[in-house]
Write the structure tokens for this entry.
Amino acid sequence: MPVITFNAFSFLQKKLKKKQIDYSNVTMTLKPGTSAKDLILQVQLAPEDVEVVFINGKVAPVDTIILDKDRVALIPPGTPGPYRVLLGFKNKKDNE
């Protein structure tokens, strides 16, 4: 079973805190074959709550299967920063 380190950022932390779900450097055990989207649902977030998934410091599609020892971070829509494009994520309207 994959054991990962999970983090959520910005307003996702508030949402998870209300649900009493840990969100900072949390060690989690997942079922084999769990995707990033599965993880989003497992932590009781809606897919639209998450703009970007980072796996091991790199942007990953939501259908990426999470592996043992991966570091997974969820980023909400509209997170500001000058490095958005360099990090590999764009505004949603740019993707339409």
Remarks:
- The chain has a mean pLDDT of 88.
- The chain is about 25% helix and 25% strand.
- Residues 78 and 88 are 14 Å apart (CA to CA).
